[in-house]
Amino acid sequence: MEQENKDELYMRRALDEAQRAFDDGEIPVGAVVVCRDRIISRAHNLTEMLHDVTAHAEMQAITSAANQLGGKYLNDCTLYVTLEPCVMCAGALGWSQISRIVYGASDEKRGFSRFAPNALHPKTSVTAGVLEAECKELMQLFFKQRR
Predict the structure, then answer these.
(1) What is d(CA 10, CA 81) in angstroms, rounded to the nearest whole number?
(2) Mind giving me the DSSP string for 68-91?
(3) CA 74, CA 142: separation in Å to the nearest integer?
């Protein structure tokens, strides 16, 4: 399967997680970590449920993936996340030495690429805009319902 198709497939799994967050009243961000064409971690925002501002989908996915692999480094892994990681998450992803990050919608207000473009590990590659419209639509619907 070519990379573009894989990226869309795994981003759809991240969107499933974002929908779970949406259904639970959390900001709808979902993430999956893939290692050697296998999902090893699934997560979504839990900041409201855990009363923890650090409980972003990416942070939950990193912890779960590291536990699954039995080590702190996520070499040979790809994170698929529906929203561009924030500075905090980008820092954690940098420390994890994740090989690749694929995100859906950009985050102009809090995204790492604007505020901390060098936060990631130098060998980490980034692909932006995968299923961007779907990722953005879920986020916009969530905030529209809140207002």
Answers:
(1) 9
(2) HHTSS--TTEEEEEEE--BHHHHH
(3) 31
What residues contact 36, with CB distance under 8 A and at least 6 apart? 76
Q: In terms of C-beta density within 10 A (0-12 exposed, 13-18 middle, 19 or more buried), how is residue 74 classed?
A: buried
The amino acid at 124: T
Lookup result for tokens 């998450």: 89
The residues near 108 (Cβ < 8 Å, ≥ 6 apart) are 114
What pTM was estimated for this model as a whole?
Answer: 0.96
Catalytic status, residue 58: yes
pLDDT given at position 147:
79
Mean pLDDT by 10 residues, the chain (147 residues): 93 98 97 97 98 98 98 96 98 98 97 96 97 98 90
Q: Which of 58, 108, 132, 137 is catalytic?
A: 58
Q: For residues 83 and 139, is the Cβ–Cβ distance under 8 A?
A: yes
Q: How many CB atoms lie within 10 A of CB 2?
A: 6
Q: What is the 3-state secondary structure (H, E, C) of 32-73?
A: EEEECCEEEEEEECCHHHHCCCCCCHHHHHHHHHHHHHCCCC
